[in-house]
């Protein structure tokens, strides 16, 4: 299984970006998908997850601003990020997980929020 993340870039505070993660291997539909981020000098942290049934979970810092979604037919997990803040600057990683299986990570995409 390979995960290909895209959509990062430079955006001004208050702006929006949409990240996408495409999974190979046609396993997305049975996996919990998530986005994580790692800022310089900090540990990787959870941003949002979505289960195979569509239940979502968000870090408090992004609630109300970020929206995670999935399209199993297109093997794609997306993260819509609105009202971006400088503290959202990080490398964003997608992850697939399922109990009893190994975790799968994408290569990361850099999001920079700066004026």
Can you describe what's shown?
Strands 2, 4, 5, 6, 9, 10 and 11 form a seven-stranded mixed sheet that branches. A four-stranded antiparallel sheet has the order 1-3-8-7, with no helix packed on it. It is built from no helices and eleven strands. The model has no long low-confidence stretch (mean pLDDT 95). By secondary structure, it is mostly beta strands. It is globular. The termini are far apart.
Summing up helix and strand content along with how strands pair, one would put the structural category as: mainly beta
Report the total helices.
0
Biggest sheet features: 7 strands, mixed
Average pLDDT rating: 95
**Segments where pLDDT lies below 50 for 5+ residues?**
none
Percent helix range: under 10%
Shape: globular
* Structure summary, number of beta strands: 11
What's the gyration radius in Å? Answer: 13 Å
Q: Termini, distance in Å?
A: 37 Å
Please indicate the percent range of residues in DSSP E strands (runs of 2 or more): over 45%
Query: What letter string, H or E per element, gives the SSE order?
Result: EEEEEEEEEEE
Topology, pairings included?
Blueprint: E1 3-6, E2 9-11, E3 17-23, E4 32-38, E5 45-50, E6 56-58, E7 66-71, E8 76-81, E9 90-97, E10 104-105, E11 109-113
Parallel strand pairs: 2-11
Antiparallel strand pairs: 1-3, 3-8, 4-5, 4-9, 5-6, 7-8, 9-10, 9-11
Short key terms for the protein model shown above:
four-stranded antiparallel sheet; seven-stranded mixed sheet; mainly beta; single chain
């Amino acid at each position: 299984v390979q995960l290909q993340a895209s959509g990062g870039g430079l955006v001004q505070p208050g702006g929006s970006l949409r990240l996408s993660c495409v999974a190979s291997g046609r396993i997305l539909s049975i996996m919990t998908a998530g986005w994580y981020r790692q800022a310089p000098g900090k540990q990787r942290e959870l941003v949002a997850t979505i289960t195979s049934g569509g239940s979502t979970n968000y870090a408090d810092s992004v609630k109300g601003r970020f929206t995670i979604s999935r399209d199993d037919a297109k093997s794609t997990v997306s993260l819509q990020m609105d009202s971006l803040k400088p503290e959202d600057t990080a490398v964003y990683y997608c992850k697939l997980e399922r109990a009893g299986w190994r975790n799968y990570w994408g290569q990361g995409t850099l999001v920079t929020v700066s004026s």
